[in-house]
Amino acid sequence: MIVPIDDPADPRVAPYVQVRERDVAGRGDGFIAEGEVVLRVLLGAGVRARAASLLVATNRLARLAPLLEGLDEAVPVYAASQGVMDAVVGFPIHRGILAHGLRPRDPGAAALLATLPARTVVLALFGVSNHDNIGGIFRNAAAFGAGAALLDGACCDPLYRKAIRVSVGATLRVPFARLAADADAVGLLEAAGFTVLALTPAAAEPVAGLPRPDRAALLLGAEGPGLPPALLARTRAIGIRMAAGWDSLNVAAASAIALHELTRSDH
């Protein structure tokens, strides 16, 4: 259902008004997805989130026509000139494609783990507050077939617009759940049958060649402080061997190497 929009103040496009400012304030049960690649993921199979509406620059409609043909008729596609769209979102949006999505219900960490197969890898993230890193980690998780991700309260939102974009839609595809503030993450993972592995530069044991447990949980911490000592004390520490004089990688890059090693026998 193509709905022309000529007025930036049209209440039907209210979810798209001043996108950057709303990003900072938060969107509650909603999120904004940006760009054609991400839109294809959002409208594809295997995604828990769903689109509530689209806002598309008129000159992009022809290119998107094959994708929009399969769209649920209940999801309106608002079409605006580039100038009107820029006025709505508050900045020149060169991609010209936005979607307002509805966030899936958080199933809870224990319930999510219970849905996973007998052989799988999950990520558990602690204090990863950079949206680029979250997006990169989720992209790697999707690429290497990780089953899910758990995030503590200090991690940023995987459904923040930039995180979705950096992940090329992987944050919409990889199931995730928030850990409760008082959750015993290690105990929770062990109770679900996972061998808990903590990725840290201080580890003597390399991830390369590590025998793969059927259920492996890879813990990742923020760059700089890394994982909390209390978690490291209860887990098996693994690391990535590097050249002398260099001690660490960006956490997203490190996650790619570790996930490759842990899942290489699966592909």
Shape: elongated
Classify the oligomer: single chain
Strand order of the largest sheet: 8-7-6-10-9-11
Q: For the terminal residues, how far apart are their CA atoms? A: 41 Å
CATH topology type of the largest domain = Alpha/beta knot
- The average pLDDT score comes to 94
CATH architecture of the largest domain: 3-Layer(aba) Sandwich
Unreliable segments (pLDDT under 50, ≥5 consecutive)?
none
CATH superfamily of the largest domain: SPOUT methyltransferase, trefoil knot domain
Summarize the helices and strands and which ones pair or pack.
Elements: E1 2-4, H1 19-25, E2 30-34, H2 36-42, E3 50-57, H3 61-68, E4 77-80, H4 82-89, E5 97-102, H5 109-114, E6 120-126, H6 131-143, E7 148-151, H7 161-166, H8 170-173, E8 176-178, H9 185-191, E9 195-199, E10 215-221, H10 229-232, E11 236-238, H11 251-263
Helix pairs in contact: 6-11
What does this structure look like?
By secondary structure, this protein is α/β, with parallel strands linked by helices. It has 2 domains: 2-102, 2-Layer Sandwich (60s Ribosomal Protein L30, Chain: A), CATH 3.30.1330; 109-266, 3-Layer(aba) Sandwich (Alpha/beta knot), CATH 3.40.1280.10. Helices cover 31% and strands 21% of the residues. The protein contains 11 helices and 11 strands. Strands 8-7-6-10-9-11 form a 6-stranded parallel beta sheet, with helices on both faces. Helix 6 (131-143) runs parallel beside helix 11 (251-263). The longest helix is centred in the middle third of the chain and has 13 residues, at 131-143.
